[in-house]
Amino acid sequence: MKILLLLLLSSSFINTAFAVKIGEIEKNYNNLIHNKIALIPHEGTYILPVSYSEKPNNKPYEALSKSSPERKDRGDFAQKMEAEFQFSFLVMMAQEAFESKYDLFIGFTQRSYWQVYNGDWSRPFRESNYKPEVFVRDHFENSIDTIFGGKIKVYDFGYVHQSNGQVQELSRSWDRIFFRTLMHFDRLFLKLTLWHRVTEEREEDDNPDLYKYLGYGELDFRYIWEGQSYNLRIIPGVEKQGLELSYSSPWKEGLRFYTKIGHGYGLSLQDYDHNHSRIGIGFILSDFLTAQ
Questions:
Q1: pLDDT band at 1, cuts 50/70/90?
Q2: Is 133 within 8 Å of 106 (Cβ atoms)?
Q3: Are 172 and 163 in contact (CB under 8 A)?
Q4: d(CA 40, CA 90)
Q5: What's the pLDDT band for 63 if we cut at 50, 70, 90?
Q6: Total number of domains constituting the chain
Q7: Any idea what the CATH number is for the domain that residue 214 is in?
Q8: Mean pLDDT of 72-86
Q9: What φ, ψ does residue 106 adopt, rounded to 5°?
Q10: Distance between CA 273 and CA 286 in Å, rounded?
Q11: Which of 51, 56, 138, 259 has its CA 20 to 30 A from that of 151?
């Protein structure tokens, strides 16, 4: 698996014939945020009808299987094959909010894992992660040069809640204050997110060891080449790490073929401390970088 990830990542830098049209991307963004009725693309909206995990995490559901002989005969609650989908969008609430230079946004992202092939357990949604957020954004008219040679166009500062919507032993949730910025180096884009967890009372904290697996932020690299998009998301936990590598290519206007590979820890809230690998194949909606 590690060799495959390295090969896919390195292949994105072989050809440098395509130049990303930054001006066109910015024009599309400005047109959309000034539309009073608009859902703005955020973290990707996709569906993977086929998503395979080589080591599903059945530990949280053992009580279900053992609660009666009938349920025990149904097999694993979390089977290796399932479907995965995500929808993610922003809504601009105010431009130059509170008479400042910042635009105010709210966002929502939901990622769900659906055991659609598990008829013995009535095809349940194994897990859903919900992530509402509110933040302000500063969008520079001119790019700011960095010491690394890249350019910065925007930065965000806000508050995010993330939860799997479950109760008791299955509950996973945390709240964070975050800073996020996007840098570009011609064809390569880097999204850097840093966060600080809002502390909870010890007796109310569902998962006090999240930092060990999810760390204090994440890095998201994206490389665009002749309409192809290569993504690497790094989850730098303090003690354990994970990553997601994805690739998309054009199919029809607004829709793209999509493949995603995940390995390690932190791939979802339920499985944040579970080490496994997964791969999915499906489709993703185009966004600002792939809609050229």
A1: very low
A2: yes
A3: yes
A4: 5
A5: low
A6: 1
A7: 2.40.230.10
A8: 89
A9: -120, 150
A10: 32
A11: 259
Task: Name every residue whose Cβ is closer than 8 Å to that of residue 29 and which is 6 or more positions away in sequence.
Answer: 288
- The Cα–Cα gap between 167 and 85 comes to 22
Higher-pLDDT residue of 178 and 20 is: 178
Q: Which two tokens stand for residue 147?
A: 């010491």
- Among all chains, which residue has been given the structure tokens 């665009």? 224
pLDDT of 45 > 90? The answer is: yes
Residue 44, phi then psi, degrees to nearest 5: 105, 130
CB contact set of 203 (below 8 Å; sequence gap of 6+): none
Q: Which residues are catalytic?
A: 161, 163
* Cβ-based neighbours of 217, under 8 Å, separated by 6 or more: 192, 193, 194, 195, 236
Closest-CA residue to 225 (of 11, 7, 6, 80): 11
Q: Where are the alpha helices (DSSP H) in 190-278?
A: 210-214
pLDDT tens digit string along 125-143?
999 999 999 999 998 777 7
In a domain, 75, yes or no: yes
Range of the domain at 61: 2-285
In this structure, is residue 290 part of a structural domain? no
